[in-house]
Each structure stands twice: as structure tokens, then as C-alpha cells.
């Protein structure tokens, strides 16, 4: 009876001779995936080389997505400094709030650090989805690129329209691009895959996204502030456009807060998708108000805070003396919100961290930008913000979407 | 011994009147576990719902040695009034065992569908992997299914970013 034990369970080798057994050999695939999915990208680079089985389990789109679900995201910022008609490209950075994870000691928190990610300087960042950046080539019109900095892959994606959304379709689990083309009657929208696959028409609408960005959406919905032809502002009731990936349809919604004066439009209002929430912030004279979308179905927005921007202007001089104090705050951008800390970008002055509870503000060093001198903080600087997670999603897995065209460009 | 009066019109409740569940390991050992603790296992939860006869539930995939520890784990996690920190410390001690035993726990937790134990033990193994080179990982876990030189070359070509 007892001899039968080792026969029934051959994987239980006798340990008397000191030899280790292959523990992983006893585990079913789903459990091995569970274990490996807990590792960070750098560690998975080692794991994928260990053996045939681990390679087979890791090198799949399924694993990459499972891994992404556990991963935490960082905010990447891409400052676009422009002085008509030229754009200055300074690089891509991610915000490291590393010190924030530790328990704070009596309010003392070290500021976040901005770390440089190397990216081709001939491209502008439009957005990021599941660790894949979507970029637009600055010199070539209608040439876009999808780039995964972990796998070093970049694939050109020529596209006739202006890409304004890059998302994972919740039902088909395929990546999709939403784009529009201007026509005499308005803007024609369509959705297509990453290669020359069939595209789906969405329809003709009067408005287009105000900024050149490609959000990836929150819970299957993408959001933008919009403008009409020739940059005309829509009425407040139609100032936010929402695209539902599932229904392949748009709807137009009002922005939170009070109605705007017809002359001003909503140029002081901005929308940003961050960490699974949708935020709208507005700058009115000396105040910044921030709302967060609590419930899409009822379109319920909740005011998160009102920040009094009446700071000591002398402490952070701007190099353009001709502006009035209202103009000073107008182009400020909300870049990140974490644990009651806001990160604000103030063109002309730099990066600031604002604590919601204590209402204190500190300047955050941004070595690369600071080194450029005041030119990079010129009034006309805009930062593109996106959520990034280091991802093993190799563009090879999406190869069927790329068809033949993309394959030869995979480096 | 006093004879207690029979339970008055005990409403036919779907759950077993007894609070202890009996389990039998693959090598014939029997263990008793409180129902509350047994419910930590989705597998046992399903079996309890179906069978109230009181006969020990056979678990052919788990040996007595491991089942004893699993019962201990579930009982501890079903205990009321244990604060998070001491439970974490207890868990850390629980998995402070040799590698082979951790894998046995994983298999048991997977078969019995005990999410807390599975999570704990998978994290332990993930920690064992962290910080090691591919070669060190192979040695540590005694992994045999390695690549042939041709396969290694193909992997290197397809995933060159992993070899930087």
C-alpha cells in the first residue's frame, strides 16, 4: 500500500538522495501563469529565457494583458513647446512618485522625480494604450507610429485621417484607432484596426477634438473637449464628446460647472483621463476648479476641489512681463493626481506640486527642462499627458492586424 | 450524561446541523475542520452544500501531511478578531518552509480553490524568482525543459529585447 504512494505520485521523487524535484513541473499552466504574472517586466525578461514552457506561456498577448491588469501605471508627460509655426520637441518623461508609497512622516514628502524615456525625437506623443505609445511623425503628414519601449518595437501606421483615439475594443480584444477627416459639412469619423483591415464608419459630426491627442478611454468610453469647424466653440451643452467603443457611437454632453459666457467659450476648460477616472478642470481668473466624473450613466460630476492660485508671483518669475495676472494662470495644466497631491504645469514657470489638504505648493525640479532655460517654459507650451504601464505586449502578437505591411518594419 | 431534548421542529435547513467537517487525505488520514474554516475553500463549499451525511470528504489529490497544514491555515484565517498585522506575520511563518512544500501548498490551494492560500504561496514563489538570472532560476527550481541551441537562437531573434 505504501509503495503505491510513490507510484501514484511519480512527481514526488524521493528526497533522501538530496536531489530537488522540478516543482514547476507539477503545476498546471494556469498556476504557472498566476506566478509569473506577478513579476515585473524586468524580471520577465529573465523568465522568458528560462525554458520552453515559460517562454510559451509568457510570449502571448493573453499573458501580456493579464500582466497589465496587475501592473500599476505611471503618468507620462510630453511637453510640446511651440512658437508658431515651429514645434520644439524636448522628450518624453514619466513621473516617479516612488517616495509617495511609503507612509508619510509628519507631512514630509519628497517631490516626485521626472525620468526621461528615450523616444525618437522626430515624433510627437498622442497617447498610450496598454503600454503601447501612439506617436505622430512631425515631418511627415499622416504618418503615425506605434511604439513599445519595452520590446523596442515600432511600426509605422500610415493613416489618412487625424487619429484621435487609440483603445482596446472591449468585445473583440483588438486594438482600434478612431480618426476623423474634415469635410465641407463637418467631420467624418471612422474606426479601424492597426493594419489595412476593414474600417467601420461612425458618422458625420459637427465637432472634432480640440487638442491633438489620442486617449485610450475609461471603461470603454473615450472623452474629449471639442470645437467646431474653424475652431468655433460649441454650446456648453455639447462641449464634451464621448465615444462608446461597444456601441460605436458618439454622444455630446455638457461640461460640469456653470455655463460659460458665449464670448469666452470653454477655452479655459480641459479634460483629462487619468487612472481610470475622467477629470475636467477649469481656470477662472485666480481659481482652478477640478471635477471628476462619478457616474457616466447619469453624467454626474463631483467637484473635487477649488484651488486658489493666488500665489506669491515673485517667487516664480515669468519671463514675459506683458501678461496680466489672469493670463498668467490661463494655460496651466493639471498633469497628475495621486494621494491628495496634484502636479501642475505652469507655462513660463515650471512644474508645481500642490497638496490638497495642506494647500501648500512647492516647485518640482525638472532637470531636463530647467536646463534648457526659460525658452522651454515659454507661454506656448502644452503638455500631453498619458497613462503608461510597462508592457510585454509585443507588436508581433498583433501581427494579423498589421498584415504584411507592418511585418517588414518590425525591428 | 444528560440527555438533551430533541431539537424542536428543526426547520429543514439546507446546511448540515453539525459544525465540523471531516476530510480524508489521499493516504487515508482523517481530519476535522470547522465549517467556517472549510468555507475558505470553494471546492469544499460546493461539496458541503451537496452532502450532509457526515461521511468524510475524500481528497485524493492531497496527502495527509499537506492537508494537516491546509486545515491549520484555513482555521487560522477563519478565526475572528485577528488583526491584519499578526495574520500577515503568521502567514509569513506558515510559508517559511522548504521549496517542495511550498509547491505542495500551491497544488492543494489550486485543487481546493483557496484564494488566500494560493495568493500567498504564488507570491512566495514569485519572490524566489525575483533577482535571479535565467541560469540561476533553472538551478534553483531544477527546471529541465531548457532550450536546444537552435531554439535559443530563435527565442533570441524573436525577443531580442529580453537579451539586452
UniProtKB/TrEMBL annotation, chain A:
Segments forming domain F-box: 21-66
Alphabetical list of Gene3D superfamilies matching this protein: 1.20.1280.50
The name this protein goes by in its record: F-box domain-containing protein
Domain of life according to the entry: Eukaryota
Pfam families: F-box-like, FBA_3
Lineage: Eukaryota, Viridiplantae, Streptophyta, Embryophyta, Tracheophyta
InterPro entries found in the cross-reference section: F-box-assoc_dom_typ3 (IPR013187), F-box-like_dom_sf (IPR036047), F-box_dom (IPR001810), SCF_F-box_component (IPR050796)
Residues spanning the membrane: none
PROSITE patterns: FBOX (PS50181)
Signal peptide feature range: none
Source organism: Eucalyptus grandis
Amino acid at each position: 500500500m505504501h509503495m503505491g504512494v510513490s507510484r501514484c505520485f511519480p512527481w514526488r521523487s524521493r528526497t533522501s538522495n538530496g536531489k530537488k524535484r522540478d516543482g514547476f513541473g507539477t503545476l498546471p499552466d494556469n498556476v504557472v501563469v498566476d506566478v509569473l504574472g506577478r513579476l515585473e517586466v524586468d524580471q520577465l525578461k529573465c523568465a522568458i529565457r528560462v525554458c520552453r514552457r515559460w517562454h510559451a506561456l509568457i510570449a502571448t498577448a493573453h499573458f501580456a494583458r493579464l500582466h497589465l491588469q496587475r501592473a500599476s501605471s505611471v503618468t507620462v508627460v510630453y511637453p510640446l513647446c511651440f512658437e508658431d509655426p515651429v514645434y520644439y520637441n524636448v522628450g518624453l518623461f514619466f513621473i516617479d512618485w516612488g517616495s509617495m508609497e511609503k507612509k508619510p512622516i509628519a507631512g514630509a514628502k519628497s517631490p516626485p522625480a521626472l525620468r526621461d524615456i528615450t523616444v525618437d525625437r522626430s515624433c510627437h506623443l498622442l497617447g498610450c494604450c496598454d503600454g503601447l505609445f501612439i506617436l505622430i511623425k512631425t515631418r511627415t503628414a499622416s504618418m503615425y507610429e506605434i511604439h513599445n519601449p519595452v520590446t523596442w518595437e515600432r511600426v509605422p501606421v500610415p493613416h489618412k485621417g487625424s487619429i484621435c483615439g487609440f483603445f482596446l475594443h472591449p468585445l473583440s480584444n483588438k486594438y482600434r484607432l478612431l480618426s476623423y477627416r474634415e469635410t465641407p459639412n463637418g467631420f467624418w469619423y471612422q474606426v479601424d484596426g492597426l493594419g489595412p483591415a476593414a474600417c467601420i464608419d461612425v458618422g458625420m459630426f459637427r465637432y472634432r477634438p480640440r487638442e491633438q491627442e489620442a486617449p485610450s478611454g475609461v471603461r470603454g468610453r473615450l472623452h474629449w473637449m471639442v470645437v467646431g469647424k474653424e475652431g468655433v466653440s460649441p454650446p456648453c451643452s455639447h462641449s464634451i464628446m464621448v465615444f462608446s467603443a461597444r456601441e460605436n457611437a458618439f454622444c455630446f454632453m455638457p461640461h460640469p460647472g456653470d455655463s460659460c459666457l458665449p464670448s469666452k467659450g470653454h477655452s479655459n476648460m480641459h479634460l483629462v483621463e487619468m487612472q481610470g477616472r475622467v477629470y475636467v478642470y477649469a481656470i477662472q481668473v485666480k481659481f482652478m476648479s477640478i471635477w471628476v466624473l462619478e457616474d457616466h450613466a447619469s453624467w454626474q460630476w463631483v467637484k473635487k476641489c477649488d484651488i486658489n492660485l493666488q500665489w506669491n508671483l515673485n517667487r516664480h518669475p515669468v519671463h514675459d512681463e506683458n501678461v496680466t495676472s489672469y493670463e498668467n494662470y490661463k494655460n496651466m495644466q493639471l498633469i497628475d493626481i495621486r494621494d491628495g497631491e496634484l502636479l501642475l504645469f505652469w507655462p513660463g514657470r515650471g512644474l508645481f506640486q500642490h497638496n490638497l489638504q495642506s494647500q501648500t505648493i512647492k516647485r518640482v525640479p525638472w532637470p531636463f527642462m530647467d536646463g534648457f532655460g526659460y525658452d522651454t517654459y515659454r507661454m506656448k507650451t502644452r503638455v500631453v499627458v498619458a497613462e503608461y504601464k510597462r508592457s510585454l505586449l509585443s507588436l508581433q502578437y498583433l501581427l494579423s492586424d498589421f498584415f504584411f505591411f507592418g511585418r517588414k518594419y518590425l525591428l | 450524561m444528560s440527555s438533551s431534548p430533541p431539537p424542536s421542529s428543526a426547520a429543514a435547513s439546507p446546511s448540515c446541523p453539525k459544525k465540523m467537517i471531516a476530510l480524508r487525505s489521499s493516504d487515508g488520514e482523517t481530519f476535522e475542520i470547522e465549517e467556517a474554516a472549510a468555507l475558505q475553500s470553494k471546492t469544499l463549499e460546493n461539496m458541503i452544500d451537496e452532502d450532509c451525511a457526515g461521511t468524510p470528504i475524500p481528497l485524493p489529490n492531497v496527502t495527509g501531511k499537506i492537508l494537516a497544514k491546509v486545515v491549520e491555515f484555513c482555521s487560522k484565517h477563519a478565526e475572528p478578531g485577528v488583526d491584519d498585522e499578526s495574520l500577515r506575520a503568521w502567514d509569513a511563518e506558515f510559508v517559511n518552509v522548504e521549496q517542495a512544500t511550498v509547491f505542495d501548498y500551491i497544488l492543494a490551494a489550486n485543487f481546493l480553490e483557496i484564494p488566500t492560500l494560493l495568493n500567498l504561496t504564488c507570491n512566495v514563489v514569485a519572490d524566489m524568482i525575483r533577482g535571479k538570472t535565467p541560469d540561476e532560476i533553472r538551478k534553483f527550481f531544477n527546471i529541465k525543459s531548457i532550450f536546444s541551441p537552435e531554439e535559443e537562437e530563435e527565442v533570441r531573434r524573436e525577443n531580442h529585447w529580453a537579451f539586452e
